[in-house]
Design goal:
- It is a single chain.
- The protein has two domains: 1-66, Winged helix-like DNA-binding domain superfamily/Winged helix DNA-binding domain (Arc Repressor Mutant, subunit A); 72-234, Four Helix Bundle (Hemerythrin (Met), subunit A).
- 70% of the residues lie in helices and 3% in strands.
- The chain contains ten helices and two strands, in the order H-H-H-E-E-H-H-H-H-H-H-H.
- The chain has helices spanning 2-14, 27-34, 38-50, 71-84, 89-110, 113-127, 132-149, 153-173, 179-200, 204-223; strands at 54-57, 63-66.
- The protein has a two-stranded antiparallel sheet with strand order 1-2.
- Helix 5 (89-110) runs antiparallel to helix 10 (204-223) and helix 9 (179-200) runs antiparallel to helix 10.
- The model has no long low-confidence stretch (mean pLDDT 87).
């Protein structure tokens, strides 16, 4: 019975009938509505809490509150599955290329003035940032922006999951300071600007070729000679 209660509450959360931060009805009201006991209702709460769809707050203003599905939760679990299966970091980088390269071409063919403005703004933020760790974050955000602007929600979700896994793995793999990191930062900025030029010109083929090379070089920079054998490690 707890699963049936959880399924109904889950349906309402996923369909937006319950909004983020909204408190669920009181336990007494929900017990009456579903015809269940308090232990059964609380078991349903535990199911939804494990799915990160509600958060239980204690105290006078406590109770169960809604939190929408979060992509980072899905990415984290997907990363655990890949690590359990012994996937290599190269595996994940190849998946990123499979998602991003076609997205670049799609964006070049359909881009709007607003898309170009968003890309240019992202370029400027990257060029103005000299802190190594923040530069790495902005680099990743630019990649995600390109996929998002291409306009496919499914590819965007998959790409964000892959990005989250790579970002977590890169904490231990990617150098973030020193001459090589600064050179990589400058080179990355130039490639990103060239990509935006090609998107502006609607040259989808050249944009895809540039991005394929860029992703390959990024993989080589991070993984070096261990590209094929570095096993994904997200737990440290």
């Amino acid at each position: 019975m707890a699963e049936l209660v959880a399924a109904e509450l889950r349906r309402r959360i996923i369909r937006g009938e319950l909004s983020e931060g909204e408190a669920l009805s009181s336990e007494t009201e929900l017990m009456s509505r579903f015809g269940v006991s308090r232990p059964t209702l609380r078991e349903a709460y535990r199911v939804l809490e494990s799915e990160r769809l509600i958060v239980i707050r204690r105290g006078a203003n406590g109770g169960a509150r809604v939190q929408p599905p979060r992509r980072e939760v899905a990415a984290r679990y997907a990363g655990f599955i890949l690590e359990y299966q012994g996937a290599s970091v190269k595996d994940v980088y190849e998946a990123r290329a499979a998602l991003e390269v076609p997205s670049v071409g799609r964006l070049a063919l359909r881009r709007s003035a607003a898309d170009l403005a968003a890309l240019t703004e992202a370029l400027d933020r990257y060029d103005d940032e000299y802190d190594p760790s923040r530069s790495i974050r902005l680099h990743g955000e630019f990649h995600q922006l390109v996929v998002r602007l291409a306009g496919n929600e499914t590819l965007t979700l998959l790409s964000e999951m892959v990005h989250h896994i790579i970002e977590t793995a890169n904490v231990t793999l990617q150098p973030d300071s020193g001459p090589s990191a600064e050179r990589a930062r400058r080179d990355t900025g130039r490639v990103h600007r060239k990509l935006v030029e090609l998107i502006r010109e609607r040259d989808a083929r050249a944009a895809e070729e540039l991005w394929h090379r860029h992703l390959g070089e990024a993989e080589g920079y991070v993984l070096g000679d261990d590209a094929a054998t570095s096993v994904l490690d997200l737990l440290g």
